[in-house]
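Hi P.,

Sorry for the delay on this. The queue was packed all week, but I finally got your sequence through. Input first:
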Amino acid sequence: MYAVEVLTSDKSDRAATLTLHNTYEHAKKVFWIDGDGAEEEYAVVQPGAEWSVDTFVGHYWRTRDENNLAEELTFSIDEAKTELDLSPEDLKSGDSKAARTVSVSNNTGVAIQKVWLDQEGEEQDYGLLEPGATETIGSFVGHVWRFKDSTHPNGATLLTITVE
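Then the structure:
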């Protein structure tokens, strides 16, 4: 079972450094997710550029394209030095016929948008999962699902899974 929760940065005194390398052909915005789950924009990393920031273990960070339309990556700092390459990924569902079910619980205080990424990587809306609800979704091995905050203007992704 997967639980969708609002990501929040932990309070920590363990200092860390985050370094991002942008290998995309367009700029990426970088956001810190604070202790309440709100995003705070920190930087715009140009194509081919590197950016570093002092942070703490347990803090969450998110990147988006320069138009704030698509989230590319959400991650937490789990060691004193974290380096990530921001690179295009072909996130899309496979065409397996092996059926599976996915159980998802919404432990947030907002409705969560259920989105399936089809074989072309295009998002297909599968409706809302209300706060406190649990749902079992029929799917297939290799299918990719995103669960987004329906109240966020850009539909911030809270969880992305690939069915195994």
